[in-house]
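Reviewer comment 2.1 asked that we show a complete input and output for one of the modelled complexes. We chose the adenosine-5'-diphosphate case, as it is the one discussed in the main text.
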Amino acid sequence: MMATAVLITLLFTTIYLVVYNTVFSHLDSDLDAESVEVHRNLVILNDRFVITNSDEWMEKEHRQIEVNPTFVQIVDIKGSLIKKTGNLLYGKLKFYPAFKNKTFFDGMLSGAPIRQAQIPIQNPSGLTLGYLIIAIPLEESALVLRNLRNVLFVAIPLVLIFLYFITKFIAGKSISPINTVISTAEKITKENIDERIELPLHKDELYTLTYTINNLLDRLQDAVLREKQFTSDASHELRTPLAVIKGTLEVLIRKPRSTEQYEAKIKYCISEVNRMANLVEQLLMLARYESGKIQPHTQKLNIAETLEKIILRMQHQINAKRIPVSFENKTPIFANADPAMLEIILENIISNSIKYSEEGKAIEITLKNENGKAVCIIRDCGIGIEKEEIEKIFDRFYRVEESHSSLISGNGLGLAIVKRLSDLQKLFLNVESRPGEGTTFSIYFNG
Ligand code: ADP
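Response of the prediction step:
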């Protein structure tokens, strides 16, 4: 509105100035034409001039003052009147001795505004012999200009007020879809996160904005659902061992039992408590790493050394299933990783390879440099994973084919932790698997 106000004022001022200049240049050219006419009736000698055609002085516009009068007056160089037209009656056009050359200016005659020209009458050698003073009334032109100025003065605020309402109306109309987006977005909370904002009809920027917000809501809804699922899975996983322990203990105290029976049941309860403790520990670990508060302390590590340490630590599990683990590393391979986090990653992957392999099936661990970066490959000949399941195994609490896996202990958190820790350290994980043939986990270090 401010810019429009300035522009309109500029435009109207220009219009006024153009009209003003046109009016005055028109008046001045009229005065000029009249001066040529009068000059034609002057005979100029060396030191004086003579007015020849007196008829010209008797023309209507020189006699009357009502219709388009033109006042003409001739004075000598001192300003003394020599001749004037009849319409001047008793009046006299003012002579300005200072105006030696042809000059146009505004003046007054009997209280009325006039446009006046003072033109020297010169002999051929340029000597001024007198002055021709011509004037025409300015009243009509001044009236036109005054009216124009008044109209423009009134028009500026009127146009601005009109523009203000028009702009407000149009802006309001174009903003209303945005208001709809805002009000719908404001209403969406965690409870009704499945609601979406209606897409506008035209595929403009607003459409893209709405589409993007809807996509964002999709992702948020996904995250909220996963969060809910996680909570219900976690409580389910904790409730089951608790119910088992409670049931076992209740049955146990119903009547006196033999020492062996007590021992067996208590051992069973301890194993369930251990399972719970393990689950709680993993949940806490996941929560800690997902909170983003723990950052990896990466350092150059001898990966071969870390692997050897883990294989040694898992010897009991390996021996129990009589699994031949091949890991021969001649040259030490270094990579950037957080030692504690890397141990958790390798331990979980190797432990899965043992868990999901039948007795006696080999596990092959390879460590190599690929394009200057370390890669660790853990290959087993276990039960394998279906293609469509592979991307889900990193989800929290996800276990492939519950019935199948339930024979093997686990809670589906191990690989979720592996994924989180790999992401934190910017390690790339790749899984290839064929059901019945085996699974290969590759860890690509980033430097
Ligand atoms: P779990 O406690 O069940 O082992 P994980 O998160 O470690 O949980 O693994 C998720 C699922 O991925 C497992 O339940 C299993 O079905 C599958 N899985 C992981 N590693 C292997 C493997 N080496 N061979 C076959 N299946 C595997």
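The mean pLDDT is 89. We note this here for comparison with the apo prediction described in Section 3.2.
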